[in-house]
Each structure stands twice: as structure tokens, then as C-alpha cells.
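Weekly puzzle thread! Below is a chain. First person to post its structure in C-alpha cell form gets bragging rights.
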Amino acid sequence: MHDSPLRGRPPRIRLVPLGPAHLEPILAGQDEALAREVFGRPWTRAALAAFLTRAERWSPDGPIREWAALDDRGQLIGGGGVHRVGAGVERGQADVSYWVLGAHRGRGCGRVVAAALVENACADARTCEVVLRIVPDNAASAAVARGLGAWPTGIIERHPADGARRVERWILPLS
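Winning reply:
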């Protein structure tokens, strides 16, 4: 008997550029926790469609990359970003964000998605450090970051998606 992606070990994933094809799975899979932690509020269909259309135009090797994480059946389980530019991102750093749809949480999918995104950041020779921004009370995301080898800096800053919220800056050196 083999492990199903819904039981046992987390699924193997592949990253594909995020785009309009992911609209329905994100809308169907977003929940209050995802909206609060990542987006700040639930996506509306129009706002998400506009974002996904923009994201589709970004180059997979460009300074701003957004990815969908698909399991081996092609089902969207989460995603994230690898940004080499942006507020608080210095030369040699990549800001990595990750998210998992509610139906896939609690099974190690966050670790798998985050590891794939860090690997994507590492593939760029210009990146020597990953920055993770974690809401201070998000114990699950902190556990994922620790599992990657990252540590909190104690620096509290504005959330990249919502300046009214605060996040703690974590660092993962790649050397």
C-alpha cells in the first residue's frame, strides 16, 4: 500500500509559475488563516485575477517570482514567492514567502513548499541569504523556518502585503 498525498508523508511537489490557471483553486482553498497570515484579507475574484495576470508576465528567472506548488497529481497545495527586490531586501538577499491551502496544512506540506522555494532562491548565484518574514504568533510558519535552518533576528517590521501588520524578520544564510 502506498502513501496518499492526503495521508502519511507530505507529497512531492513541483513549482510552476503562478498564473490565472490557479484562480479557482486559490479562491476555493483560501480560508481565514491564509487570508490573515499571507494576504491580510480574503482575495476577491477580481483582485486575485488581476494579481495572477500580473504574476503570469513575470519571468521565472526574474527578480520577482511567484510560484504555485503542485502535488504529483497536479493539484495546487500552496505556493509562494522569491523576491530579490523589494522593501527591506538588500543585495544578495531573496525574500521568500510560502503559503499552504487549508486542506493541505498539518501534514508537512509547508516544509516541502518552503524548501522548494529556498532551493529556487539558491539556484540564483547572486543570492547568499534568504529573508523570511513571519507573523510573530504563527508557530507553524516559525517551525517550518526553523526546520530550514533559519533563525529569528528579533527585528519587527511591516508586513510586505499590509503595512498595518507586523512581522518578524528571519534569516537563512546560504553559504
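Puzzle host: Confirmed. Bonus trivia for everyone else. Residues 1-7 have pLDDT under 50 and may be disordered.
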